[in-house]
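Q: Here's a chain of 216 amino acids. Please give me its 3D structure as C-alpha cells.
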Amino acid sequence: MDKVRPLALLFLWRLALNDSVGWYKELKPELGAPDRKILVSQGLISQYKQKREDRPAKNPPALRIELTEKGWQYLGENLTDPVNARTYAGADIFGQFLTHLARFLKNKSLSLADIFLSSPAPVNPEPVDPTPRVKAGLLAFIQEHHREGRAIRLAELRPILADLAREALDSALLRLQKERFLVLSSLGDDPSQVTQADKEAALWVARSPFHLIYLK
C-alpha cells in the first residue's frame, strides 16, 4: 500500500481523536473527494450518507466518515510519518491529542516524564559458556597441525580464539583442566625457551605462569 499523503494523514488523525467518526462538513482539515477516494480504496476509512438527528428532517442525508480498523493499524505502524504542518487544523488536532494523552496518563497513574524521559530497560543476554568452543578449537588445531601428543603453546591458541575475551578463554582452560581434558604446563624462566609472545600469552594462576597445553 502506498504511503498516505501528509494532509490525508492529518485527516486520519482527526478521525482518530474524534472517536473514529465524524460528519465530513465538521472535520478539519478539509479533504477533497479524490483523496478520500484513495483512503477508501486503501481500506483506511469508510464513508456513507446518513440523516442527522440534530438537523431538520427535510435536510438531505449528510456525509459521514469513519476510521476503519485498518486505519487504526496504519496510524499505529506509521507514527513517525510527517503530517501537513501548513494548516491551522494541525494545532487543534495537537490540542486534542494532548487532551487524550492527559486522560491516559491519569488513568495509568503515569507522569509525562515517564513517557519522554524513560529509556528501555537494558536486555542482559544469557552468558554463553565458552568451554565447548575452546575445546573444539584445541581439537581442530591439533588435527590441522598434526600435533597429537605434543604441546600447544598458548601463544598459538590465543590468536585462533581472539574473539573470546582473555578472561573467558582462561576460565575455559582452567575448567577443562579440572575436567581432566587437558593439563596446563609452564616453560619456566629459561629465556631460550620463553619468547616474548609466550610471556604475553601466559595464563597466570597465583604467581605461576602457564605457557603450554597438553591434551589428555
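Q: Can you summarize the key feature?
A: The chain has a mean pLDDT of 90.
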